[in-house]
Amino acid sequence: MRIGVLSERTGIPRRMLRYYEETGMLIPARSPNGYREYDEQSVDRALQIRGLLDAGMPTRVVKQVLPCLKQPGAIHVLGATPETLGLLERERDSMSERIETLTRSRDAIARYIDTVRRTRAPEPQEA
Amino acid sequence: MRIGVLSERTGIPRRMLRYYEETGMLIPARSPNGYREYDEQSVDRALQIRGLLDAGMPTRVVKQVLPCLKQPGAIHVLGATPETLGLLERERDSMSERIETLTRSRDAIARYIDTVRRTRAPEPQEA
DNA sequence: CTTGACCTTCACATCAATGTGACGGTTGGA
DNA sequence: TCCAACCGTCACATTGATGTGAAGGTCAAG
Questions:
Q1: Nearest-by-Cβ selection for A106 from B54, B95, B108
Q2: What is the Cα–Cα distance from B24 to A54, expressed in whole angstroms?
Q3: Per-residue model confidence (pLDDT) at position A127
Q4: Does the pLDDT value for residue A40 go beyond 60?
Q5: How far apart are CA A103 and CA A53, in angstroms?
Q6: Whole-number pLDDT of residue B85
Q7: Which residues of B make CB contacts under 8 Å with A?
Q8: Rounded mean pLDDT, A50-65
Q9: Which pLDDT value is given to residue A77?
């Protein structure tokens, strides 16, 4: 599919899809006329990238991390240098920290919302 | 304590602590001489801010969200407008999404690391 | 009193992630 | 044929989070 379609289907601006290519995170094929041609997989891929970027992961890390996220695996297993492995472990740990921070905060917010709701909305339910 | 001490204790650069004040996330008292004076709570507070920023949350949201993260609660419960409440709910939900994305990716990375380790390190353990 | 280690504000620089728009090519349908 | 709706690259603007440094105040120790 072309960039416009992928953009439609993912909600990600064309500009950003081009940026993802520029940074090496999502590289599409090219039609003879030079248009970017994305395969079906690119949809998930793009959304995954979006999610990671939104979660605060910088593009260069996303780029390093993405190859491990393709299920088929097995092929690229051999291509991992010790440095890459180290980086991945550090990344895994820092992600765990983020997850914990986010979870704690989210739960606190949820409790807060609950409390507010409960302490001043003991009203009957509508229609 | 003064900014240098807080910086030492949290590992957060002075510059950033001033920035947190500028954006209204962490406002210290002032000594008569104009120096910033942080209380003990500020340590946790600063670390929390750091964690949320690292997790990709923008400062204006951190600012909105922080008041709910103070345990004592109860006092500021009344100050929540419906708009704030709505914002908090949206934020809670988007945090949940982030957490899921991060968790999925982290687990995938962890699996990958495991696989690589297992497929080429069936070596005896050292010392 | 001077020095050094703090602190202040201000301001400019940088970097990554985005927005925006100019300018031009391709293509399919009226 | 011509227009509309795509696409391409290039490039500049912006925003948020930071780094860096200048110019000067405070204060305790020597």
A1: B95
A2: 23
A3: 37
A4: yes
A5: 18
A6: 83
A7: 48, 51-57, 65, 68-69, 73, 77, 80, 85, 88-89, 91-92, 95-99, 101-103, 105-106, 108-110, 112-113, 115-117, 119
A8: 92
A9: 60
Name the pTM for this structure. Answer: 0.85
Q: Tell me the fold of A1-72.
A: Multidrug-efflux Transporter Regulator; Chain: A; Domain 2 (1.10.1660)
Give me Rg for the CA atoms of chain A: 20
pLDDT < 50: residue spans in chain B: 126-127
Most A-contacting residue of B50, B99, B100 (CB-CB within 10 A), to test interface: B99
Q: Which nucleotide shows the minimum CA-to-C1' distance to residue B31? A: C7
What are the structure tokens assigned to B25, written together? Answer: 């996330």
Token representation of residue B10: 């949290």
B 22-51: CB within 7 Å of strand C: 34-36
User: Does residue A102 surpass a pLDDT of 80?
Assistant: yes
Residue ranges per domain, chain A? 1-72, 80-121
B98 touches strand C (CB under 7 A): no
Parallel, antiparallel, or unpaired for β A29-30 and B36-37?
unpaired
**Three-state DSSP state, B29:** strand
CATH code, B1-76: 1.10.1660.10
Q: For residue B101, give the nearest of A55, A110, A115 by CB distance.
A: A55
Query: Which range among A74-78, A122-126, B31-35, B71-75 has the greatest average pLDDT?
Result: B31-35
Cα separation of the two ends of chain B: 47
pLDDT for A71 equals 61
